[in-house]
Amino acid sequence: MATWAQVSFQEATSPMMEQMVYFHDHTMMILLIITVMVGYVMLSLCWNKQVNRNLLDGQKIETAWTVLPVFVLIMIAMPSLRLLYLMDEVSEPSITMKTVGHQWYWSYEYSDFNHIEFDSYMVPESDLEKGMFRLLEVDNRVVLPMQAQVRILVTAADVLHSWTVPSLGVKVDATPGRINQTSFFMNRPGLFYGQCSEICGANHSFMPITIESVKTKT
Questions:
Q1: Is the peptide bond before 104 cis (omega within 30 degrees of 0)?
Q2: CATH topology for 95-214?
Q3: Mean of the pLDDT values across residues 177-196?
Q4: Integer Rg of the chain from CA
Q5: Residue 159 CB-half CA count within 13 A
Q6: Each residue of 38-77: b (16+ CB within 10 Å) or e?
Q7: Cytochrome oxidase subunit II transmembrane region profile domain location, by residue (predicted)?
Q8: Pairing mode, strands 208-214 and 190-196
């Protein structure tokens, strides 16, 4: 989960989030190189007192500043397209869970196991115990196995919501009348927190998500 004064991503808990962090670092390195090169050229031109009165055009430099950006965009686009494909791919899930967004709580269904249903509300600040996190704790956690492919079906009962868990790299829109799906794989046990990421009314910020990842064998 996020910590105080954190400026980077949360610690990755799924292979997909790890790939997103790698892609972010890859893109930021390219942008840093471009920024340094452009800054160096601009500063050198500002401080350079040389003048070439015979320079009317430059076919070579025009070709270079057309070809190089295309090459850079390809370097960014290829891993990005791969990630987009993997994010939408749902293959051989071990368990399927359905979540429905309401104003202002989440309800969950384990359709694979005797149709278990429950609602998940935020724990009020007055009921928090020592060690609990404000605006992130819920009365009923989502319990899922670690190291298993989980498919989640997301929809809404009233207005637009968004089911988001940053450490898993998951963000799915909950749209009334439509079911969206995605999948994730948790590498380790623990508690992973998220929140609704679509403005859905007065209590939008009071719709936390808490996933408890457990070992299948103890």
A1: yes
A2: Immunoglobulin-like (2.60.40)
A3: 92
A4: 24
A5: 12
A6: eeeeeeeeeeeeeeeeeeeeeeeeeeeeeeeeeeeeeeee
A7: 1-91
A8: antiparallel
Q: What is the mean pLDDT of residues 171-187?
A: 92
For residues 160 and 52, give the distance between their C-alpha atoms in angstroms, rounded to a whole number.
Answer: 61
Residue the block writes with tokens 């790299």: 169
Q: What is the tens place of the pLDDT at every residue in 27-52?
A: 999 999 999 999 998 898 888 877 77
Q: Is the dihedral of CA 8, 212, 185, 181 positive or negative?
A: negative
**DSSP character for 217?**
-
Instruction: Report how far residue 80's alpha carbon sits from residue 74's, in angstroms, rounded to the nearest whole number.
Output: 10
Alpha-carbon span 163 to 101, nearest angstrom: 8
Over 80: is that where the pLDDT of 203 sits? yes
* Residue 18 structure tokens: 């790890």
CB 121, CB 148: distance < 8 Å:
no
CB-based contacts of 48: which residues, under 8 Å, 6+ apart? none
pLDDT digits (tens, 9 = 90+) for 69-115: 999 999 999 999 998 888 888 888 889 999 999 999 999 998 777 77
Number of Cβ within a 10 Å radius of residue 217: 4
- Distance, in Å, from the CA atom of 163 to the CA atom of 170, rounded to the nearest integer, reads 8
**Facing residues of 142 across strands?**
211
pTM: 0.81
